[in-house]
Every structure is written in C-alpha cells, then in structure tokens.
Design goal:
Distance between the termini: 21 Å
Structural class: alpha/beta
Largest sheet: 8 strands, parallel, barrel
CATH class of the largest domain: Alpha Beta
Order of helices and strands: EHEHEHEHEHHHHEHHEEHEEEEEHEEEH
CATH topology of the largest domain: TIM Barrel
Number of strands: 16
Number of domains: 2
Radius of gyration: 21 Å
Number of helices: 13
Helix content: 25-40%
CATH architecture of the largest domain: Alpha-Beta Barrel
Length: 318
C-alpha cells in the first residue's frame, strides 16, 4: 500500500521529499487556482525522481472559462512520468485522445456514493433493508458498463472514501483490474460553483491568482433548522410562515463540516479498520494543524501498510 499526501502549496511538496510518503500530490480536486503551472510540475518531477518519489497531479472540476487552460496543462502533463487524477467529465473524455503515460485515476468528485455525500445518510436509509443500504453505500462507478467505458478513456484507478461500507463493496472495481485509492481523514460532501471562502471574506476569486486564502479549513456547523411547511400548533392553528425550529438532534444529525476553497467536507471518524484491497491511502495536509500531527498519521498508515502486506502474503501462502 502506498501513502499519498495532497499538499496545499508547491513549497510544501519540496519539504516532503525525505518523508515516509510514496506519492506527493499537487493540484486540487475542486479549485483551478490551486493547480500549479507546467514548469512547476516538471521541476518537481525531476526533484522527486532523485528522491524515489512519485508525483501526482490532481485536476479539479473545471468551469468552462478555465477549461482550455486545464486541457492544455493535461496535454503537456502527458509527456511527464506522473500520476494523474481527473475530477471533471470534460477532461476525462478528452483524456482518451491525449493518452497519458500512466493512465489516470477518477477522483472522488466524479466517483462518490450517497453514504459519503450526505451528512444525514443514516436518516435517509433508516427504513431500508440491507441490500438497499449496500447499493447506496457503493461507489457510483461500481458498474460493469461504466468501468468498461472509462477504461477505454484511459482510467485505471478509482478514488473512494475510506469507510468500511464503501471499501467492502469494491469487488467489481477490483475484478475489472482498477486500483482503489482511499481518502483517509475526510469525506467530500459537495462543492460550490461559487467559492464560499471568498464569499465569506468578501473577496473576488480573481485574487486567488496572487494569494490562496484557503490554506486551512473553515469550520461550520448547524445551529438550528428551519421549516417552510405549515405546522400545527397546540391550538390546532396552522402557521405557514418560515420559522426556525430548535432541536437537540440538529447537532447529532448535522455534523460539523469543513470548507476548503469551494469544497465542503466532513471528518471521517470511522476509519479505524483494515482493508487490504486499498492500493493507496490518501491524506490531505490541509486538514492537519501541525507537522507532528501529520507525522503521527504517517506512522499509523505505515502500520496499516505492514498489516496489509502481511495479510496478502498469508493469503498467497494459504
């Protein structure tokens, strides 16, 4: 099992050359402003080669206004010995003609499940049977037709969230010879066309070209919920006005979320299990406060890696 870290800046990428990670990933799954220039990627690849590291370039979900620039970068990247992750359907379809050197991974913006994208998933499936729950927890890429099709485009890897219910339903993906990469500490809930960080700071997104504001996550949580449906009160009168309902279950149902750029995430607190079929474990440095905390995660994943490799050896011997 490989350990991959998604860095927030190019400077951070260079500081990890002597770390325990196998893959250093630059770019972003949601924001075009966090994707480095070709020259920066090329120089980083040369440095990584000297340190026995692989570089991954993550291409985001791309608005039309930025599509030509991202496509041009993808074409240039095809000449480099890098791993590529694509989170945009337009770029994925064009990848067939580009023929990337190492193929590409389908990112979690495109590969997702209801389990990971809905903070209130448990409520949605509360009355469903186990078969329905299994289907809803499975990646939307878990389809023979889809997997055969995206393979013709050059895809050879699928990203998932490191949740037990998702990991246990990857048999078809693995049978179709796709690698499975898992995000360890966070789940992507959704993304916005307009950057919520910039809206909060009351700034234009054009300023991101000079300075990235989202170098750390912003935490948000639900305090109350509102209802626009007519509600009957104790006097049998109906109130059709929008009103706020205080409810102790709100905090339990709606867990705190993290905003990074135009991506909305929730913390994965259910990742304490072993799953040997994950080829790469992905961690995102933006969710860690300090280097020491990050090093602790490296050590934990190193142990998971050793357990995984030991399990595979035992299986082969058996």
């Amino acid at each position: 099992m490989n350990i991959e870290i998604r860095v927030n800046t190019m400077e951070e990428a260079y500081t990890l050359m002597e770390s325990q990670v196998n893959i250093i990933a630059v770019g972003n799954e949601n924001c075009v402003y966090k994707v480095p220039k070709y020259e920066e990627i090329r120089d980083l690849v040369n440095e990584a080669r000297n340190n026995n590291k692989k570089i991954r370039v993550v291409f985001p979900k791309t608005p039309n206004i930025h599509f030509d620039n991202m496509l041009e970068l993808l074409k240039k990247t095809a000449n480099l010995d890098v791993l590529v992750t694509i989170n945009d359907y337009g770029l994925m379809f064009r990848a067939k003609d580009i023929k990337l050197m190492n193929g590409f991974a389908i990112g979690r913006v495109l590969a997702f499940s209801l389990l990971t994208s809905s903070p209130w998933y448990d409520l949605l499936v509360e009355g469903e049977n186990q078969e329905i729950k299994k289907a809803l927890a499975t990646s939307n890429m878990d389809s023979t037709y889809k997997l055969d099709f995206v393979k013709t485009l050059g895809a050879n890897e699928i990203e998932i969230e490191y949740l037990k219910e998702v990991c246990e339903n990857t048999e078809r993906i693995i049978e179709k010879t796709f690698k499975v990469s898992a995000h360890y500490e966070s789940c992507l809930v959704g993304y916005s066309r307009c950057c919520p960080v910039k809206k909060m700071l009351q700034e234009e997104t054009s300023t991101c070209a000079e300075e990235i504001a989202c170098s750390e996550p912003y935490y948000i949580e639900f305090k109350e919920k509102f209802n626009t449906i007519p509600v009957q009160n104790k006097k049998n009168n109906y109130n059709s006005m929008t009103h706020y309902v205080e409810d102790e279950l709100v905090k339990k149902i709606f867990t705190p979320l993290m905003v990074v750029g135009n991506g909305l995430y929730k913390k994965n607190e259910n990742n304490n299990f072993e799953y040997k079929n994950v080829s790469t474990m992905i961690i995102n440095s933006v969710f860690y406060d300090d280097k020491e905390h990050l090093e602790n995660v490296f050590e934990l994943l190193k142990i998971k890696k050793e357990i995984s490799e030991c399990s595979i050896v035992k299986k082969q011997i058996g």
